[in-house]
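Sequence and fold
=================
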Amino acid sequence: MSSTKSKVTVWITGDQCSLLNSALSSVNQESARVLMIESVTRGSMRRYHKKKLVLIYSVMRHFAEELRALGWELDYYSEHADFGAAVNEHIRKFSPSKILMMKQSEYGADSKLASLAGSVPVEFKEHCNFITTAEEFEALHKTKESRVTMERFYRQMRKKTGLLMDGSEPEGGEWNYDKENRKPPGAEFQWNKALSFPPDAITQSVIDMVERHFAEHPGTTENWNYAVSRQDALRAAADFFENRFDNFGPYQDAMLHGEPFLNHSVLSPYINTCLLHPLELAKEAEKKYREGKASLASTEGFIRQLIGWREFIWQVYWRVMPEYKNRNALNATHKLPDFYWTGETKMRCLSDVINTVNEHGYAHHIARLMLLGNFALIAGLDPLETNEWFNCMFVDGYDWVMVPNVIGMTLHADGGYVGTKPYAASANYINKMSNYCKNCEYKNNTSTGEDACPFNFLYWDFLMRNEEEFSKNQRMALVMKGLKARDDSWRMEIQQTAEKWRRTL
């Protein structure tokens, strides 16, 4: 067999497009060739948002150009029917000695992809975009059945990385400055527009491809503004650190009608496709703080998302899958309303954020948790169906991201494994942290009657449906005490209003 035919194949998938890819970095150009496949069948497995598909395919094509420019030999299958046919063709043409891959981010995907290689051995390398190991995470647990809080895990990560540390103690004397990062959007609130990246020729060709194959998928390909190369992703990061970072922290929970980005970084689509590494961003954030260009609260909040929450969610996912996805501790069974796809609802907050998701495949974390997720929680929407919607509709959404965030943190369907209490709130929270209630058809200060805000009566109905369980939760003691003081006639009116409204869904 010739040396040409005995090269190792490095198979790179759409969310692994980095020179740090552990499979790619483990070989040299002379002994390996790169395989990349655009699978139309894979893109059709779910009703993925069109912009999510454009992002993945365009990132792949741009990374392929980067690899070619660096001298890598590439076997690229664009707009191909499926993975299996392309792999078979690649093996027939090149007879690789083995196939190297970085581990996939979705549970079960490694074995599925490896099975396509037939008799060719497949070797998997660790994922390059995470900075902790399963062994480190497991060492924090007392037993196989125990759980570890994110806060405990986060402190461990701070010590491991040395980020925002003053010797063995946290910078400023506190580990967490979240209490300083909850300001409502008052008159003094300011934000700068995020850098936008109009489609180049490659992205435009991908947009045309997505419209050909996925025309019936939700969302739109119009008004494209995302980066699709590492170079542009770095520009997006630099723009955030220069123009929005210091104002990000205090107002990160704020929401404004028609303003989906505000001071948020919008870097998660690039981190989750490996264009950016979380540690390089965390180090840059700390640098800005050390230079006096950002507050400690903004810096700590940003770093906590990167090395705390993101890493925690990754480890939880791999520790408890596959059964975790099917948990439904609160017995929520209601079908996802059609307005989650269309945005056609009189609730001004949900209409705005769903229209934003349809246009951009994006909403910042509070809009996801306290509007989209909060409604699903208190309305009792089916966890599997809700998770599917989140997975399909967000450009940064992958199975490992969404399952713990939706099943765990958002819907409390895991019985408190991720979060110690459900993130349920009435319209009072929405009115405090946004301007949505001002011009809404519903009244945010009313819980019964035709014009009562659904967030109000659904909130109280949710507490009543789970009163026995939540009464055991110390973190919910105050709100459950308030519920206990309500008389039977009020309770009945709330329950009847909620049930009547749910039937309209």
Notes: DSSP finds 22 helices and seven strands in the chain. Strands lie at 8-11, 32-39, 74-80, 99-102, 122-125, 165-166, 169-170. The first helix runs from residue 40 to 43.
